[in-house]
Automatic annotation (TrEMBL):
GO molecular function, one term: transmembrane transporter activity
Origin organism lineage: Bacteria, Bacillati, Actinomycetota, Actinomycetes, Streptosporangiales
Keywords, sorted A to Z: Cell membrane, Membrane, Transmembrane, Transmembrane helix
Keyword Phosphoprotein (UniProt): no
Membrane topology: Multi-pass membrane protein
Localization: Cell membrane
GO CC annotation: plasma membrane
Pfam family, one: MFS_1
Entry protein name: MFS transporter
Organism for this UniProt entry: Thermobifida halotolerans
Length: 404
């Protein structure tokens, strides 16, 4: 695998760390900034909005630039955003820094996926994309816990200085290792927008949002599920989250390997597994060891979909995939927002802490249905092309006979 892919993975690790670490530092940030915990929590929402809207807007605005240039600008924004957070004298400056970093997140993973796919042979694209997203998953296992520990042991600002340093290392890696494509012809914005007239592009985006949304519908309320229902102490949450993160890493890598062989089949298998794991979780949550094992399987099944749906977006947006790939990141985050909202609504309705598992299973089932329908359209198109190719020689022979 080219070293440039690993440079993209390191950058993805920094992006994932800055997204997730704030959740463990909210009390420290709230106290230092003299704001309520609820207002500090808006730093999470502000970041999410930056991902959903900022990434596609940046990608559209910079569509005429070479992709390497776009990646470098995004990493500079990431560095500026986290440095602003580290020195923020006021809450609003911290929020601006978070939004800067979020714009990088929204666009970088999409553009980085396209770049990674272009660096390898066609039959290794999903594996290359899975390595980019491995950085994001490892951030769950190592980056966010480490950043939380630094922030709680020293100062929350030290955490953002650490992330800024990761950004600098990533920027250097991108400059040195990602090749400059001298023959690259940047797509016109009209072409980038034009791919959204294709129904299969929208299907791929729906698969992204529903697949990840189903995972996070359950995961958003994993803390009360594991403490109130499974009976774990609050001190056990960190080891449990590490287990979940290990599942994310393993599922992502396996999904990349098998999506290269059979993209639709891998997506369908992962989505079916996700439905099954979520339904089984409603039973195993009563038993601590089984609940911990199921949590790890949940992470594996959920992130096994990522390389497949990212490669599918690139395939279906062939010719101008950059903006569509950035929108795929936005679609995934929109799915997270919808899944979390629906899960919360079931809890507010008094259905209990296992209700989000049913919401996730329903979303995963819809993702399965959309993927199946999209795959059926692929097969129908292939049969039509094969029939057309077979008819051409007969038509040519008939024309020659008529001429004689």
């Amino acid at each position: 695998m080219p070293l440039a892919v690993f440079a993209l993975m390191i950058a993805s690790f920094g992006i994932g760390t800055t997204e997730f670490v704030i959740m463990g530092l909210l009390p420290e940030v709230a106290a230092d900034m003299s704001v309520s915990l609820t207002r500090a929590g808006l730093l999470i929402s502000g970041y999410a909005l930056g991902v959903v809207f900022g990434g596609p807007v940046f990608t559209a605005a910079a569509s005429r630039m070479p992709r390497k240039t776009m990646l470098l600008i995004l990493m500079v924004l990431f560095i500026i955003g986290n440095a602003l957070a580290a020195v923020a004298p006021a809450y609003w400056v911290l929020m601006v820094g978070r939004v800067f970093a979020a714009v990088c997140h929204g666009a970088f993973l999409g553009i980085g996926s396209v770049v990674a796919a272009d660096l390898v042979d066609r039959d290794r694209r999903s594996r290359a994309i899975s390595l980019v997203f491995t950085g994001l998953t490892v951030a769950n296992v190592f980056g966010a816990p480490m950043g939380t520990w630094i922030g709680q042991s020293f100062d929350w600002r030290a955490t953002f200085w650490m992330i800024t340093a990761i950004g600098v290392v990533s920027l250097i890696g991108l400059i040195v290792l990602v090749p400059t494509r001298r023959n690259e012809t940047p797509a016109r914005l009209r072409d980038e927008l034009g791919v959204f007239a294709r129904g299969q592009v929208w299907a791929a985006l729906a698969i992204a949002g529903l697949s990840i949304g189903s995972l996070f519908a359950a995961f958003s309320y994993i803390s009360p599920l594991m403490t109130e229902v499974a009976g774990f102490s609050s001190g056990m949450l960190t080891p449990l989250l590490v287990l979940f993160g290990i599942g994310l890493v393993a599922g992502n890598l396996l999904g990349g390997r098998y999506a290269d062989r059979a993209q639709v089949a891998t997506l369908l298998t992962a989505q079916a597994a996700l439905v099954a794991v979520l339904l089984v979780f409603t039973l195993t949550v009563q038993f601590q060891v089984a609940a911990a094992a199921t949590l790890m399987l949940l992470g594996g099944a959920g992130f096994a979909t990522v390389p497949g749906f990212m490669t599918r977006v690139i395939d279906k947006a062939a010719g101008a995939p950059t903006l569509a790939s950035a929108v795929a990141s936005s679609a995934a985050n929109a799915g997270i927002a919808v899944g979390s909202y629906l899960a919360g609504a079931t809890i507010d309705a008094g259905l209990g802490y296992t209700a989000p598992l049913w919401v996730g299973a329903a979303m995963a089932a819809v993702a399965f249905a959309v993927t199946f329908a999209s795959g059926a359209l692929d097969r129908r198109g292939s049969l039509a092309r094969a029939a057309g190719a077979a008819a051409e020689p007969r038509l040519a022979g008939s024309s020659q006979g008529e001429a004689r």
